[in-house]
Design goal:
The chain contains 3 helices and 9 strands. By secondary structure, it is of the alpha+beta class. It is globular and about 40 Å long.
Amino acid sequence: MLRILFRTTLLFAFATIAGSSYDLANDQLKLLKDPGGWDYLKMSDTGIQTDHPCFDGKLHRECTGRLRFSPDNTFTQEVTIQGQTVPRHGTYTLENDQLTFFDELETRDGPYTIEIDAQKKSLVMYTSAVRVELILHKTLLDKKRKETK
C-alpha cells in the first residue's frame, strides 16, 4: 500500500512539473506591454526547419514588422515586405506563459509559449510548429544608432 501511494505521489509530482507553466514577473509584463512594441527578428517553421527570408535574424530594410501589446489586451501588428504593409489587430489572452491571439476576424492563433528575457529585451513565442523571435523596439533603435556611428 505504501509503495502504491509513493508511486502515485511521484507520478503526480512529475505530471505537475512537466505540465507546469510559469507566471511572468512584473518587469516581464511591463516589457511585453511597452508602448513602442516589439520588432520581428526571426521566424522559423520548426516542422521543416526553414527561416522566413525577410526575418532570418538579420535586419533587412525592405522587411519590417512590429507587434504591440496594449494593457487593455488588444494588439496591433504591422508587417511590411517589399513596400506592402499588412496590418492586423485584435485581442489577446495571456495565461501564465501562454499567449493566444484573436484577430479582427476572430481567428484564433495560438496558444504560443512565450519567454521574455528582461536583460536582453527579447521575446520568443513558439509552438510545436513555429518559433518567432522579437526584440524590444527601443533596443533595436539603440542597436541601429550604434551601427551607424
